[in-house]
Amino acid sequence: MGNLPHKTFLSQRWRAGLHLLRAEGPWALARAIRSAWRTQREADALDYPRWAATYASPGAVELAAMAAEAEAWTRKPLISVLMPVHDTPEALLRAAIDSVLAQAYPHWELCIADDGSMLGHVGPLLASYRARDARIKVATREASGNISAASNTALALATGELVALLDHDDELTPDALFHVAREVNAHPGTAMVYSDEDKRDAGGTLAHPHFKPDWNHDLFLSHNIAAHLCAYRTEVVLKAGGFREGFEGAQDYDLALRVLEAVGRERVRHIPRVLYHWRMVAGSTAVNAFEKDYAAKRARQAVEEHLRRRGIEATVETLGSLGVQRVRYLRPPAVPVATIDAIGVRARNEAARRSASSVLLFVGAGVGPMSAEATAELAVQAQRPGIGAVGGKLHDREGRVEWAGTVLGAGAAHRGRGRGEGGYMLRASLVQEVSAVSGDCLCVRRDLFEAAGGFDEKFEAAFADLDLSLRLAVLGHRSLFTPFAEFRRSSAAAPAPSCDAAALANHPREAALLRERWGPLLADDPQYNPNLSLDVPFALGWPPRGRTP
Fold first, then answer.
1. Would you tell me how many other CB atoms lie within 10 Å of the CB of residue 403?
2. Are 341 and 363 in contact (CB under 8 A)?
3. What are phi and psi of 321, to 5 degrees?
4. Which end of the chain has a smaller Cβ tally under 10 Å, C or N?
5. Over pLDDT 90: what percentage of the chain?
6. Cis previous bond, 78, omega within 30
7. Which DSSP helix (H) or strand (E) runs through 43?
């Protein structure tokens, strides 16, 4: 596999498989093995190292241009990089510090907290770097505490306008802090900014890029999509209370949740560039989510407390096979759900007008729920404040995924995958915001449907579902995908036209209207990523599409 020496890799995978077998049984283990095999096969086909070398590795000329641009800025925010250290192998510690020294943006300070390291090389190495560059600060804790305490010690050294987080065995790309500072300059209200990331295996090869969506709070409640690289306004972190002890393993996640409560999603920015290399070392969750079981437990606790502080009645459970969280919202009093299987936009609008139900569920030909819970899950999600259209996970007659989210300009996501497969970065298996919901399984509150004017009958043959989702978003109601509401198509009917190239070509009149209304979104879906392809959802873009700050 190339990620770790062979024996180490097999040992860690064996422990992960044994954990899953005990927790969820042989079928869950079989599904996980199949999904891991397919994911690795797809990763090998992506040739990410070549992509990264071509599009994500700025050379000396580009870095010099970044430095010159930064010097011309009126505002040059100082960025304090926080790095707690504990018994880090020498080569990895040097690589982490050198990655900060290599930054094109020079207005930084590196705040290191040595958490009582016992290895003899750590102290002298840190002292030598501090003597080499005055921007490096070092605080030494006499006894080892924990990652939260050490992070707070590093935070106490910070004098910058912004703080950025760096693990002691990871690396920043040389353009990382430039892009953070540039983003904050372009959007002065920014309180939190995060980037895409990848991993570096034991042989030094770049692998497993995580190209993230713009802010997606429901996805974030499943796992920490911000993670690396993440930077905050220092004053906001201090007001939030810094890193809380008792959340070790999820301390960054807990901090991000508390910051978000204070600033709101409008002040969060995403930089769609890989700015951080997460090191795959033995014992790291970068290799295996089961390496630190306590991290998942504390992540669950962090989400539970976040929901409680916001007054949201819900429970949180860890999905053992994925190492992520599922939020179960308290069901409101049962409301009747009208299932509308009328074909055609005009017929659907008429059926909705005749219905007396407060929740409407539009389904395609031959589509029905796979369990009694499926419709209830849609209704619960649809009645949450701020939610517009909600779609479930739709399977075809053979049990393969037919719809698990729409990518604007690229079509149905994860189509053709097996029922138990997680998809790209588990996106087929987690509740998340999507830009549009398929009309083959679309649930919406009646009052919102009426406020949006129903389906626009100009989209007679295609894309009325997509247009409705986007009009609901304009009204302030985001669309949602939940994999926990599973539906299946029992007939041979074709799925509703998605917005891929073939569907757009087959419906030129509706496509022209769609482009007129929503053209910029079709080229850059905020719940997708410009580094990913519009030809094949979640494949690498060769080349990536541009995005201005």
1. 29
2. yes
3. -70, -15
4. C
5. 85
6. no
7. helix 26-46
Q: Please give the distance of CA 9 from its chain centroid, rounded to a whole number.
A: 26
- For 443-478, the pLDDT digits (tens) are 999 999 999 999 999 999 999 999 999 999 999 999
Contact 303, 326 (CB under 8 A): no
pLDDT at 341 over 70: yes
What is the rounded average pLDDT for all residues in the chain?
Answer: 91
Q: Is 157 exposed, middle or buried (0-12, 13-18, 19+ CB in 10 A)?
A: middle
Q: Of 505, 526, 372, 367, give the one whose Cα is nearest residue 439.
A: 367
CA distance 338 to 442: 12
Residue 14: partners with Cβ closer than 8 Å, 6 or more residues away: none
Between CA 187 and CA 183 the distance in angstroms is 6
Please tell me the distance from the alpha carbon of residue 515 to that of residue 173, in angstroms, as a whole number: 36
Work out whether strand 324-329 and strand 411-412 pair parallel, antiparallel, or are unpaired: unpaired
What angle, rounded to 10 degrees, do the helices at 508-523 and 464-474 form?
A: 40
pLDDT, tens only, 356-405: 999 999 999 999 999 989 999 999 999 999 999 999 999 999 999 999 99
Which run of H or of E encompasses 339? strand 337-340
Using DSSP, state whether 283 is helix, strand or coil: coil
Distance CA 537, CA 425 (A): 13
Token pair belonging to 402 = 């037919």
Is the CB of residue 401 less than 8 Å from the CB of residue 394? yes
Question: Angle at which helices 90-101 and 122-132 pack, to 10 degrees?
Answer: 20
Query: What pLDDT, on a 0 to 100 scale, did the predictor assign at position 292?
Result: 56
Joined tokens for residue 401: 């995924």
pLDDT above 70 coverage of the chain, percent: 89
pLDDT level of residue 1 (50, 70, 90 thresholds)? very low
A 10 A CB-CB count for 505 gives 9
Q: Distance (Å, rounded) from C-alpha 461 to C-alpha 455?
A: 12
H helix count then E strand count, the chain: 18, 21
268 CB burial (10 A radius; 0-12, 13-18, 19+): buried
Interatomic CA distance for residues 302 and 325, integer angstroms: 11
Exposure string for 343-371, b = 16+ CB within 10 A, e = fewer: eebeebbebbeebebebbbbbbeebebbe
Question: Which letter does DSSP use for residue 532 in this model?
Answer: B
The continuous run of DSSP H or E covering 466 comes out as helix 464-474
Query: Is the model's pLDDT at 11 over the cut of 50?
Result: no
How far are the Cα atoms of 70, 98, 530 from residue 280, in angstroms, in the given order?
A: 32, 18, 26
C-alpha angle 395-397-399 in degrees, rounded to nearest 5 = 50
Beta-carbon contacts of 303 under 8 Å, excluding residues fewer than 6 positions away, are 221, 257, 316, 325, 327
What number of CA atoms fall less than 13 Å from residue 467's CA on the CB side?
22
d(CA 321, CA 288): 11
Q: Among residues 57, 56, 79, which one has the least CA distance to residue 181? A: 79
- The per-residue pLDDT for 27 is 54
